[in-house]
Design goal:
The protein is mainly alpha-helical. The chain has two domains: 34-82 and 260-340, no CATH class; 85-256, no CATH class. 51% of the residues lie in helices and 10% in strands. The chain has a two-stranded antiparallel ribbon. A two-stranded antiparallel sheet has the order 3-4. A hairpin with a 5-residue loop joins β1 and β2. α5 (136-143) packs across α6 and α6 (145-154) crosses α7. The termini are far apart.
Length: 340
């Protein structure tokens, strides 16, 4: 019996040594020797020599000088890879797509063919009517309570703005509490709908949005103010504008520009997506460097083409670019974008 136990012990010992020590060490050695870049996460460094990200994981870019990745249902969090799982009938998905399309949509035909829709959305919004009824912002909040609450919770500045509003409208808040006795101490998000109804009445044709101005000390100061122009108007109210203009023909938008990948972390976009963003990227870099936009466009298009690839070395599939790789190439050529 002891002999059998000893054999079993040695079998377990060698199995552990081989599977848990030798095998991982061999793979690690091969990886470090033959594929060090891939084995260490495919990490890329910025102009300052510091690691800025991985070729394998998408990350958000906020400046207009950069190409933007696909939307991410995981908020670009590699530890929370996931799809949105939203059905096509879910208004949250419709809203997310509309917010992407609004600022970039262009007319397909007619006298305005090739022109941006955004200015017309702003002009329509300023009339403060939807389907013949006044107070468009109040209607938006009443129709989509969850979106109104999401706006309040999206940024601490938004919540603080609502808190400040509550102090100036105690009667409105008191009436809300009376109508909702189960919430005697409402938070900012709880008051989202009544807040937007009040804003819509006091500031017709305007929506609270982030505004950056120069302070007395010359530094930029960011506040929330009611406005009737800007990307918030163009994105949030594009869907309502579209409902009132169903016959208008708009140019098609690349699918990967408005849909998230299954992982939410796809680091690539198609060449069609990159081309759709080209005007914004080119105009911003040209303005930063005070150069001719046509010359800058040729250079950026060359950078995109040099970094384009397709699956299996082009044998199958359409070409795409790695967003982080191309944005780093732009920084290498033009330097870092100015701080705003």
């Amino acid at each position: 019996m002891l002999r059998n136990i000893a054999k079993s012990f040695w079998l377990l010992f060698f199995s552990v040594v081989i599977c848990c020590i030798l095998y991982p060490l061999v793979l690690w050695a091969i990886g470090q020797a033959a594929f060090p870049f891939q084995a260490n996460g495919s990490l890329l460094k910025g102009p300052d020599g510091k690691v800025v990200g991985s070729l394998l994981i998408a990350q958000p870019f906020t400046k207009d000088e950069y190409f933007q990745p696909r939307p991410s249902a995981a908020s670009y969090n590699a530890a929370a890879s996931a799809s949105s799982s939203l059905a096509a009938s879910n208004y949250a998905l419709r809203d997310r797509v509309a917010r992407v399309i609004g600022p970039i949509a262009m007319y397909k035909s007619g006298p305005k063919a090739g022109q941006a829709v955004a200015p017309d959305i702003e002009g329509w919004f300023g009339q403060d009517k939807f389907q013949g009824n006044p107070h468009i912002v109040a209607q938006w909040a009443d129709l989509h309570n969850s979106l109104a609450q999401a706006w309040v919770s999206a940024d601490p500045k938004n919540g603080a703005y609502v808190d400040d509003w509550t102090k100036k409208h105690p009667a409105v808040v008191a009436k809300w509490i009376k109508d909702n006795p189960g919430t005697p101490q409402p938070k900012a998000a709880d008051l989202a709908v009544v807040f937007f109804e009040s804003i819509s009445t006091e500031n017709p044709g305007k929506f609270p949005s982030t505004v950056t101005k120069k302070g007395a000390d010359g530094k930029d100061v960011t506040t929330i103010e009611p406005v009737n122009t800007g990307t918030d108007i163009q994105s949030i109210f594009f869907d309502m504008w579209r409902q009132e203009h169903p016959d208008v023909q708009l140019q098609d938008v690349p699918g990967d520009m408005v849909t998230a990948s299954a992982s939410g972390l796809d680091p690539h976009i198609t060449l069609q997506n990159a081309e759709f963003q080209m005007n914004r990227v080119v105009s911003k870099w040209a303005a930063d460097m005070k150069r001719n936009p046509n010359d800058v466009r040729k250079e950026i298009e060359q950078i995109v083409q040099e970094n384009a690839s397709a699956p299996w070395n082009g044998i199958i599939g359409e070409k795409y670019i790695n967003v982080l790789e191309v944005n780093l190439a732009l920084c290498k050529k033009y330097g870092m974008p100015p701080t705003q």
